Amino acid sequence: MKNISIVKADITSLDTDAIVNAANNHLSAGGGVCGAIFSAAGYAELKSACDKIGFCNTGSAVITPGFALKAKYVIHAVGPIWRGGDQDEEKLLYSTYYESLKVAKENGCESIAFPLVSAGIYGYPQKAAWETALTACCDFQKNENSDIKVVFSVILDELYDMGNDIIKQLSISSCGCKAENTGDNDSPVYEKLYIGDQVYDACFFHNADEQFGFLSNWYLSDFTVDGIKFTSMEQYIMYNKCLCFGDSISAKDVLSTDDVAEQKNIGRNAQNYIDNVWAGKRQLIALKGLYEKFSQNTELKKKLLDTGDAYLVECAVKDKIWACGIDLRDDSRKYADKWSGQNILGFALMEVRDMLKAHE
Asked: For strand 73-77 and strand 18-22, is the pairing parallel, antiparallel, or unpaired?
């Protein structure tokens, strides 16, 4: 991942612009890493600075001087206590990292060191803590156009190895960042989707060049339906959209180009278009095309089947029909009750996956 690394070291010894203290709401000195930071900074000075601030909400962060530390600043970040996973713990932990990075950027920091927040006495599962931490930092770098150097400081070998394994798994993740050492791990990297009181594995996708880009209608892959060759699902759908309303000229134009953006534009302007008719037919057309796309391409079929029973969710802000209506970088995509779109493509892909499983 860009500018993200893990070291085995005492965080108080690091020469970064800021180090992060995994704090409690009242910013009082505790044990473990927190106690070590207070001791190294100068207990009286750091306590006085924290007392002036007084309180910090869970999922937020505040800043004080580093005093005797090598680091110029200490950022006090309050992570969530693990209560089983159904109390917005993941959302709060993500916010803890994101807000810490915002505070660091606002104060001119070019480097920051984190412990693995909430994974100690707060009981957050270590693997899940790593996944959220790395995703949040990667998202921040991309969303905020930031090149801040992020270092994770751990002591235990098992945490060090676990974190580096997850960095490899997130080599092409939902945030689009690449790992420094990608390895050969092509296994799906699941996130969580919350539907009511239930939690499911999910694969979120949008651009054709990302890890789950093969699910996109814009992904280029040849397949044939009724003797006609198509280069993408977008071409197949727009061709059939034009034919649906008797616009054979536009249908031929769709077949004449491999430019998916141009195909979409032609289909959008199909003559005699009736919204209610297309609303009833589009998913049936998509199901047929998707089945042919994946059944005719062995490698793509394997990738789709490898997603198991995970929910497949297309993320795009402006698409309220085929996608969920939320940007891939927006953490609210993980909460189905916040979707403004129907995710037709995602559900069609899940249906095709079940059809392929049955055939297998």
From this structure: parallel
d(CA 240, CA 251): 7
Q: Give the chain's mean pLDDT.
A: 90
pLDDT at residue 171 in the model = 53
34: phi > 0 → left, psi -120 to 50 → alpha, else beta; which?
Answer: alpha
Question: What CA–CA distance (Å, rounded) separates 254 from 49?
Answer: 65
**What does the pLDDT look like over 21-50, one tens digit per residue?**
999 999 999 878 899 999 999 999 999 999
**Phi then psi dihedrals of residue 291, to 5 deg:** -60, -45
Distance of CA 160 to the CA centre of its chain: 22
Q: From CA 116, how far away is CA 136, in angstroms rounded?
A: 13
Q: What fold, for 213-359? A: Tetracycline Repressor; domain 2 (1.10.357)
Task: Look at residue 178 in the predicted model and tell me its pLDDT.
Answer: 38
Would you list the domain boundaries of the chain?
Answer: 4-181, 213-359
pTM above 0.85, yes or no: no
Superfamily of domain 4-181: Leucine Aminopeptidase, subunit E, domain 1 (3.40.220.10)
Instruction: Give the CA angle between residues 315, 317, 320 to the nearest 5°.
Output: 85
d(CA 95, CA 184): 31
- Percentage with pLDDT > 90 across the chain: 77
pLDDT, position 175:
47
Q: Write the DSSP symbol of residue 178.
A: -
> What b/e readout covers 238-259, taking b as 16+ CB neighbours within 10 angstroms?
bbbbbebbebeebbebbbeeee
More confident residue, 182 or 199: 199
What residues have CB less than 8 Å from 284, skipping those under 6 apart? none
| Dist. CA 207–CA 172, nearest whole Å | 12
Specify the pLDDT at position 177: 41
Q: What one-letter code names the amino acid at 136?
A: A
